[in-house]
Amino acid sequence: MDKKKSFLQSYWGAALWAAFIMLLCGLPGQDLPNIDFWEIDIEDKIAHLGVFGILGFLMVYGFIRKNSQKNISRKHILILILAATAYGALTEILQGLLFPSRFASLSDFLADSLGAILGIVIAKKLLVKQR
Question: What sections of the protein cross the membrane (predicted)?
Fold first, then answer.
């Protein structure tokens, strides 16, 4: 079987979810006021935690499907965390540069990263065979 096809078959859920996240990030927002870093919108951060948590979970699920095994090394966990965190950074950068009436936010990036890490940790606990 073609490796590229195998990769897509394994990670299709994570890829679709990542596209959905980008769609959400690109939707035109109302003109938002410049928010002080310490005035954090809790509901917004919970949404960021949730969508990136699901992404992290789906990435672990894809890894398990691709490798036909239920174990995963610390190195691979770190790679998944870095990939999800990089995607969170990309969404924030694009919001700051390309999407109308949207802005990049450090607190959103931190929530994205924490959500991805939590999703990966939860998936590891639920899906990965413990050694």
Answer: 45-64, 76-97, 109-127
